[in-house]
Structure formats: structure tokens, C-alpha cells
Amino acid sequence: MSTNQEWFERALRVIPGGVDSPVRSFRSVGGTPYTVVSGEGAYVTDVEGRRYIDYVQSYGASLLGHAHPAVVARLRDAAASGTTFGAPTPGEVLLAEMMTDRVAGLEQVRLVSSGTEAVMSAVRLARGATGRDKVLKFDGCYHGHSDALLVAGGSGVAQLGLPGSAGVTEGAVADTLVAPYNVVPRLDESVAAVLVEPVAANMNLVAPREGFLARLREECDRVGALLIFDEVITGFRLDYAGAEAYFGVRADLYCFGKVIGGGLPVGAFGGSRDVLSALAPAGPVYQAGTLSGNPLATAAGAEVLSRVTQRDYAELSERVGRFAAAMAEAVGSAGLVARTPVEGPLMGLYLSREGFEEPRDFEEARRLCDNGLYRAFFHAMLDQGVALAPGAYEILFVSFAHSDEDLSRTVEAAGVAAGRVARTATS
Ligand SMILES: *Cc1c(COP(=O)(O)O)cnc(C)c1O
User: Fold this and answer.
1) How do residues 141-158 score in pLDDT, each as one tens digit?
2) Distance from the Cα of residue 385 to its chain's centroid
3) 129 and 214 inside one domain
4) Same domain as 378, residue 247
5) Active site (catalytic) residues
6) Residue 378 burial by CB count (10 A; 0-12/13-18/19+): exposed, middle or buried?
7) How far does residue 149's CA lie from ligand 1's centre (Å)?
8) What is the atom index within ligand 1 of the atom nearest the CA of 231?
9) Contact call for residues 70 and 307 (beta carbons, < 8 A)
10) Is the peptide bond before 281 cis (omega within 30 degrees of 0)?
11) Which domain range does residue 147 map to?
12) 169 and 211 co-located in one domain
């Protein structure tokens, strides 16, 4: 039988670093990545036949769990009818209708092929619509890997300890401003847009302080800047209608990805008809894509969205709340301190040896994520068949497929893992 080691060595020969996205490498936790051959619901199986309860869930793209039968059936049908045409299709209209029906501030939406593309295009649109250059982002938020937005990024950029990226010119970031999360920055009239993750979920989890998003909205209005919610993670995961419904704050532009593709490559950005009228072919801001609105991606995305109700989100959030509390308690009684902040069904995990406050910004999150405990905890969980993301800056994704039994097995494993870490790493 082939092993993870063999596959990873083959990968290293032909794929840089052996992975197609840096967050998948085990660089920050050490060891060899497991190579997945299949997934089913809450589980993934690697090439050695080991099964893991999976909390990566494609970094949030998978909401119903892996290979949901209805999604698979819908994909089969869609594939048999042709996978891409370069002409309008009903599928893209249906998905756009579902999204605009739910998010009040979203009147029109353009589909693209990744979250990166969505945010990059939204920023261009904001600049085109306002005639201004500057974009403000928050320290530790991740908005995809486009040149202008990698600075002070979370996720893999934070995980690898990079300040940004080589190959990005000073010119490309000259118009990018960076501010600490959870503090409303003072803007001026050079700012085209403020880009924010409504719940910061790429620096582990940092929830917005009470009133932060509402006051950000006011500050944008004061100077005529557009507020962009990067909902690539929060969109249709945090809530039935995303962050706008959850926090009661309206944005000017919204970016989506992950969940809305049902596990296929997709992204979307949109907002009011007025702002979107600046986009080609109606307006002067150009943006395009051969595979945009792809029939497979729109079929899977629409199938996923159609299967979850408002009530389902509320129930999942409650279950995750109980799970998070149980995880913190299990870790605590084993001799470490954990905090597991929750926002809707999103859940973070911070570990420490001493008591601490929930982080409010990237500096505070980083101190905890870089304390070295996660690495050992991660491997102790993996040994017990629980796959967390191989990096301390990622959150846990509990899908609709995770059963109560899966969650309680995970809590048990966390107690064992924390005990091991507490005993071995004290020195
Ligand atoms: C994942 C993510 C992106 C980038 O999406 P890709 O599909 O990986 O390009 C952008 N913003 C946020 C908040 C994300 O979590």
C-alpha cells in the first residue's frame, strides 16, 4: 500500500513544497501531511486508509460535509449536461437569485472562480466607483493572495511568519493602509474602501467588538468610502444571510467564496445595483472570467444553500457553542488553558499555560498562536484520528455532517492531547 510519506515525496518532486496552497503544508507544525483520497460527511480518509474527523472541511468551503449525496447527484446531472459554455446559463441566475434574496444589501452579484478574485475585483470596483485610490485593511485579516492585499495578512502568511510576500512591488501596496482590528480608524477622502472580515477568521478567531462594525459603517459614510465585507468565510456559514443579518450592519460591497461553491472553485462579489452598474459591460470597470459562473460550481453551490434553513444555522451554532465549552473544559482539566471563542458556528482555539483574555486583535492573537503549544496539540489530535488545520491561525469548521458523537469523541481526544502536551512540554 502507498504511504503518506511516499505521496508527499512524489509531490515534492513536481509541486513546489509538495502542496498547491501553503496552508496545507505541515511547515508550522512539523511532519508529513496526510494525503486525502476521499471524504464522507465529517470524515476524510488518507492513502494509508486512516480516517479522521475533519475540522478543516476545505477551510470552510464544505458546509454539509464531504460528498453529500444530494450534492453529488446534482453534480452528476450538471456534468452530463456540459461543464462550461462561455454563454449565460440558468444555474448562475439561480445561484445569484438565492444570494440576493437572502442578503438585503446585495442586489446584484457577479460570480468569479475564487475568493481572491472576488476581493480583488471588489477593490477595483470600489476604486472605479469612487475615483479614489486608497484601500484600508486590518492587520491579520486575510483577503486572498492578490498583490495589494497580502500585507499584514493572516492565515498562511501569518503561519509562515511572513510580513507579506516577495514579488510584491512597493507600488502595488502603496495604496494599501493597514489598521489594527477592532479599532475604528480615522479615514479621509482619499480612501476608496475599507475591507473587513466581519468576524476575523484567519488569525484564529477574533470576534468584532460590540459596535465595531456599526462605527466602521459610520466612519465610511462620513468620508464617502465604501465598506466591503469580505464574507468569503462568514458568507452563508455564520448565518443564513451572512454577517449583515448577524450583526445588523449593511456593507456597500460583499465578497463571497468557499460555501457558495459547494466544494467547487467559486467566488462572488456584489452590492447595490447602483455600485455594480460601474462594472463592465454596463460600466467602465473591467472584470472577466472564462470559467466564471461555472455550471458545476453553481449547481453544487445552489444545492448546498437550498438544503439549510435559518433554523439549521441556529441549531448548529448552539451545538458548536456546547462543543466549544466542552473543549475548553477538557483542555483545562488536563492541565493547559484553552479559550474557544465562538461566533455563530465559527470556532477558534487558543492554548496557553496560563490564564488569558480572548484576543481582540492580531498582536494578541499572534502571541498565543506562536507560543508553540498548538504544534504538539495538533499532532496529539491527529494521532487520535482528529484532523485540525495544520496551523494555529486557522479556525475549526464544524459542518452539518458532524454528529454529536463525532463532537464528543473530539472532546475526549482534546483532553488526552492536552494532557500529553502539558506533561511533555513543561521545561
Ligand atoms: C479564503 C479566503 C479568501 C480567499 O479565497 P480563495 O478562494 O482561497 O482565493 C479571501 N478572504 C477570506 C476572508 C478568506 O477566508
Assistant:
1) 999 999 999 887 777 776
2) 23
3) yes
4) no
5) 142, 230, 258
6) buried
7) 11
8) 13
9) yes
10) yes
11) 69-306
12) yes
